[in-house]
Amino acid sequence: MFKVIFSLGMLSQTIRISTPYIFAALGGVFSERGGVVNIALEGIMLQGAFCAVVGTYYTGSGWAGVVAAVIGGALIALIHAVLSIKYKVDQIISGVALNLLAVGSTKFCLKLIFHSSSNSERVEGIASWKIPLLSKVPLIRVFFDYPLVLVALASVILSYIVIKYSSFGLHLRAVGEHPEAADSLGINVAKIRYLGVLMSGVMAGLGGAWLTLDQHQFTDGISGGRGFIALAAMIFGRWNPVGAALACLLFGFAESLQLQLQTVGTDIPTQFIQMIPYLATMIALAGVIGKSIPPAADGIPYQKE
């Protein structure tokens, strides 16, 4: 049984399952590094998934669906940014409200466009990238069979470089740690925070696009709590793009293990097997809470004097 579970196939499955988590977790890193808590990642993913299926349905192009998901995710994130930064609404309340809005609006539009309250019509995904030699290596092939997986890998690397070494990343970290000091140096705190939250919308929207295009349709509640698990991965990864991505792979492995155990059959009750991803999330957070220190101004509105 263990040979079946711990195989190259399972590793490939882990990477695929982890992809939407990685996108959303990176979005959380950008938002919270700038000092804005964004628990609306779940709703942004859901909205991105719906926009992806609509964009693909009307254009016939999976990449057009990806662009639609990015736009949809950014718009939801913009609402959160305006409420949190301009009007200084409690960021947790704003996030919860947007999650509920996404659930209601996607169900309404699903009924309006596809005349169904449960799922959309089937759409085409994104075609594989056929690259000689590389596309034939089993573990590497997953990146080319599913192009958004390769986009996720590139996003982790670029996010790390941007946050660690670019002037924008420096300003983002500055306003997340000490906005007063950043403001005194001429950094526009509100502008940087807006950009950070918008980036979170773009990334979480990509995560939603993956869900729809991987399953070739939108189903009601397709995000399935992935935005919250992505938040847990972000915390476990200590607000670092690489750390968050590795945490996503851990949670993706737990979900893949659950699926493999259900496939091969064991004496373990199904209910316990289905709990594996969520238990892994709770255990990981229980071990890291108190050890991970968020940005000092995370969740604190900035009032310029």
Report strand %: under 5%
Q: What sequence of helices (H) and strands (E) makes up the elements?
A: HHHHHHHHHHHHHH
The Cα radius of gyration reads 19 Å
Task: Give the total of domains.
Answer: 1
Question: Per the principal axes of the C-alpha atoms, what is the gross shape?
Answer: globular
What's the pLDDT, averaged over the residues?
Answer: 89
Per DSSP E runs of 2 or more residues, the count of β-strands stands at 0
CATH class descriptor name: Mainly Alpha
Instruction: Report the helical percentage.
Output: over 70%
Number of helices: 14
C-alpha termini separation? 64 Å
Second CATH tier, the architecture? Orthogonal Bundle
Low-confidence stretches: none
CATH fold-level assignment = ABC transporter involved in vitamin B12 uptake, BtuC
Largest sheet: none
* Quaternary structure of the protein: single chain
- Please state the structural category: mainly alpha
Structure summarized in a few sentences:
This protein has one domain (2-288): ABC transporter involved in vitamin B12 uptake, BtuC (Orthogonal Bundle). 73% of the residues lie in helices and 0% in strands. It has helices at 2-5, 8-33, 41-59, 62-86, 91-114, 138-145, 147-165, 167-177, 179-184, 189-215, 226-236, 241-264, 270-274, 276-288.
